[in-house]
Design a protein that fits this description.
about 140 residues, alpha/beta, Rossmann fold, two-stranded antiparallel sheet, about 45% helix, about 20% strand
Length: about 140
Amino acid sequence: MKTKARILYVEDDRDEREMMEIYFKQHGYKVMTACDTAEALDKASKNKFDLFMLDVRLPDGTGADLAVKLREMHPAIPIVYYTASAFAEERLATMSKCGEAYLIKPDAFEDIEGVVENLVIAKQIASRKHAPQQTR
């Protein structure tokens, strides 16, 4: 099976990380996981990704603050939050900093693949538009 995209999934709950890693791999994605901001930044600096999926609450910071740092490192990579935090104020504050989508656990589970696929395709289209044109 061809890899659809490379995802960095950042989640402090080990069981959740493992479950999502299995889910993404079964759906044709290559996944790396991180348990906190420090590990995520390290992996993002050493590997190439097509999408970042972040929890909003991490043991060493917030997903929004991590997203801002990831965006500085990789401006074109889409960011999706996947979190149990359903508070409207937190969602607005998070999305106002950075990010393309905010999915709430577990209700949005069936939406994950569609959101991820759409963002990856949009990124691919945008990168083709900005790629230098070859002359004949």
